[in-house]
C-alpha cells in the first residue's frame, strides 16, 4: 500500500493544478507542490490542521458555511473564483465533495489554479473593446455630421440657381423632422 501512496503522491505532485485534500473532520491531509506554490503556503505547517484555520480569521465563518454546503450538496462539484486582495491575485477553485457508496461524507478534493494573468488579460481586453466601441461611436457621429453637411451644401448649391426655390429643401426637411418627431418621439430617432 505504501508504494501505491508514493505513486499517487508523485502523480499529484506533477499536476499543474493545485490539489488539496481535506478529510471528513475538515483537516488538510494532502497538498501538492502546485497548491503550495499557488497559495504560497508551507505544507508542513498546514497538514493535519483544520482547513478553516488556513484562512484569515475574517473568512472563518464563510469557510465553515462552504464546508457545510459541500457536505450536503448533491452535485458532483462546485466552482468558485476567489480574490486574494492581499496579493492582488485571482484563483479558480473547484471543490469535489467525496462520499462513500452509502452516502457518508468522506472529505473534499480542491483543485486550485492561479488565474490572475488570465483575469488581467480579460480585463484588458474588455477595456480595449470599450475604447474601440467609444471610438466607433465617435467616428460614426463625425461621419453623420459630414454626411449632413455635404447634403446641406449640395442643397444650397442647387438652390442658389433659382431664387424661387431658395430655402425650400430646408423647409421641407424641417417639416418632415417635426412630423417624424411627433410620430416616433425623440429628435435622435428622427435625424
Given this structure, which CATH class of the largest domain is correct? Alpha Beta
Query: Helical element count?
Result: 7
Strands across the major sheet, in which order? 2-1-5-4-3
The CATH homologous superfamily of the largest domain? PAS domain
Distance from N terminus to C terminus (CA atoms, Å) equals 80 Å
Element pattern in H and E: HEEHHHEEEHHH
- CATH fold type of the largest domain: Beta-Lactamase
Number of strands: 5
Helix content: 40-55%
Largest sheet: 5 strands, antiparallel
Percentage of β-strand residues = 15-25%
pLDDT under 50 segments (min length 5)? none
Report the structural category: alpha+beta
Which of globular, elongated, flat, extended, rod-shaped describes the shape? rod-shaped
Average residue pLDDT: 86
Short description:
This protein is an alpha+beta fold and 191 residues long. It has helices at residues 2-13, 33-39, 43-46, 60-72, 116-160, 168-184, 187-190, and strands spanning 18-23, 28-31, 78-84, 89-99, 105-114. The protein has seven helices and five strands, in the order αββαααβββααα.
